[in-house]
Fold:
Amino acid sequence: MWCGNTKWNGTGDHLTTNPLRKTAKCAYCQSVHKTETMVVLTCQQCGSPLPDAEPIQAFLEFDTAWSPPIPVIEKLASMFPDHDFELKYFEGGMGFSGHARWSEGIEEFHQQYDYDGPRGG
Structure:
């Protein structure tokens, strides 16, 4: 099949998450704890609650047919204005790439470039 990455037959879908912070400092006794494996964020020395973990970055990689999914990301950014969205894309066959970012539901920037990398262009 020449194009298996349509919206009906998606390919190359990957979701990974990375916590931004792996430690938390107790406000009461000032001890520092590794939070990666903790289920309940509680200081192991004094029992005080630890501050909430910082947001998690989620990286979603996927293939689309022909064009970048800018309308989809715009809609997600407007639906979830408390999240930041970043889109990096390239299309080797037609020779273009780009980078865009949305914050508070508003597009901060969108830059497009010529692509002439090893995958075509």
Q: What stands out?
A: Residues 21 and 54 are 6 Å apart (CA to CA).
